[in-house]
Specification:
By secondary structure, the protein is an alpha/beta fold. It is built from 21 helices and 30 strands. The strands form seven sheets. A seven-stranded parallel β-sheet has the order 11-12-10-13-14-9-15, with helices on both faces. The chain has a six-stranded parallel β-sheet with strand order 16-26-25-17-24-23, sandwiched between helices. A five-stranded antiparallel β-sheet has the order 2-1-4-3-5, with no helix packed on it. The longest helix is centred in the C-terminal third of the chain and has 15 residues. The radius of gyration is 29 Å and the shape is globular.
Length: 721
Amino acid sequence: MMYILECWIEHPVRSLDRTFTYLSETEVKRGCRVQVVFGVKTLIGFVDSCTQTDETPAEIETRLGMKLRFIESAVDEEPLITDELYEMALAMKEATLSTSISCFSAMLPAKIKPATSKHKIVQETWVKLSDREVTLTPRQLQAWTYVKDHAPLRYSDLRKEFPNQARALVTNGAIELFDCEKKGSVHIERGTAEKPVLSELQEKVLKEINESNDTVYLIHGVTGSGKTEIYLRLAEKALDEGKQVLILVPEIALTPQMIERVSARFKDQLAIYHSGLNAQEKYEQYRMVMNNEAQVVVGTRSAVFLPFADLGVIVMDEEHDPSYKQDSQPSYHCRDAALYRAGYHHCKLILASATPTLESYARGLKNVYHLITMSERINKTMPEVHVVPMKDSIRKGESYMISDLLKDRIKDRLEKKEQVILLLNRRGYHARIKCRSCQEVIRCPHCDLAMSWHRDTGLLKCHTCNHEMKVMKVCPYCGSTAGFATYGFGTEKLEHELLKMFPEARLLRMDADTTVRKNSHEKILKAFAEHKADILLGTQMIAKGLDFADVTLVGIINGDDGLARTDFRSCETTFDLLMQACGRSGRGDKEGEVIFQVYDPDHYAVTSALRQDYESFFANEMRFRHAGQYPPYTYMISLTFCSLKEDESKRTAEQFMSGLSGDFKIIGVITLLKIHDQYRSRIILKGKNLDLMRQTLREYMESSKISLKGLRIDVNPMYLD
């Protein structure tokens, strides 16, 4: 008996994006990993199909017209992913124009990716009673009875209770040792929140969702309108029907509070999945879902690929957030994956945000999505919003960081023992430094980007590649020793300034520099919730989703900074940031206040946020998008060619573009900034028919002789700058 295996090989090279044939003497199921010799290397293959045959190896080779190798070994006994996820990976390959193996890899935790890896599954030693009859001392009998009452039991736990008897029981054969995959590395603190009484609006929304047969719902709900309780009630209903629940949040900073609320309601049924977990912890959570040991999952983007058997509802909170889009290949959007899974499981998908993406809201208006509006808060009051034009304030001699109005309001809240959130979407101490002589900005040697100075380390740091270096004494551009001038400020300098203004204030800073350590997000937010700090200062990670009843003031520093970006979404991301940050104030019984410090107070992104008016922003922004033929009026595909050689990326892009044609607009070649030592050149395809654009591009790449090494394809990119 012989088996013919078709295998995907681990290298995500486009020229190798096909299956390769191997032989096996044993059956290997689709979705299992196998070790194979490919060329001169031993690599990992991912089984696509396994066909039984009565032919001999020689007969198979004659029929296929090629020499075949046997697999070295099967790595897995059971498939790593379900049939649903397997088909989904192949669909994602077509949608994102990626390789098959990269899609499989994106779905799996690092421990079991279809790749040659040093990651090993952590094993634990357990004990069980043996069938042998042995003579035991009284103390050994106590230990034996303990095993009997607690089996199966970790050997380490037995040694804690009976350190001297554990080894003796093993030696005399009274108990046996065996290895199992480690479990329980992730500790989830249970929340204690009571189940609230639904408002009239929440009751209405739940009824509308439960009585409708639609699949996709867009809840456009103002911050504090009670969307989370809607999710939990829908989750309860799904669990009552014996189904599973997936609740997605865009980034790790939002998971602690969501986990607390979900765990209070569902306790031991919960699993979590996000980037803060290490490889072993992610693997354990993956296995919990695969073994149906977890009915509810709270997670970030990659949690959408967990191996659910029977989903009852999928929730995508803060659906507008760009973190839901994967940067590297395959450049999938979590929303598309959630749509696929909702269709497969015939369950409802809830998209929710106070500031939905223009694409989603347009689909809601056209009834592609079932649009539901929640226009009032649970406490019926919206925060009062003020705009401080910083040009005028600075002209009056006020601080360029904290205006007099914001300073007075912070002082007032500190006196009342209320809490303050301050948002500045830039970290570090100084944003950049310039040579006093030639005025050149000091840039990262690996990226064409300005380096920021961090006072706590005394180093310059690149916020893209994380390269660090000391401030040089000699300008690398002109050789001057005149020194450097500093410009701009980040959260580190703002923290320093606030502590000088309010020396009695207790302050917490939350940004990429203070959240490097494991569980740091959770610790900072917990400390703030327990009133161990008066002021929470941070970047955009504190702008959304957080719920603190005693926060009555939110200040947004340089709130319109994002408008300086040249990207077509710059107005949308600025409006989102302002609106979401507004939502952190006045969520309890006390009235809230918000202060925008901006340089362009008349921009429609600012004025719409001031009025908390999403509809007016949507109308203004859609006019701009229509005039420029940007999404949602068109689709785009970004093709970025990367190379370590300065001229090669541009030359390859020009060569590629010269042979490309179709019923769409081709924009390029555009030279981009160097990132991670990679020189980059980009082509953009823009058109009305996305399927046609994909098909044309796919056929062109298959027939072209141009090297596609270093090509990154992004279908419907979030950003272009």
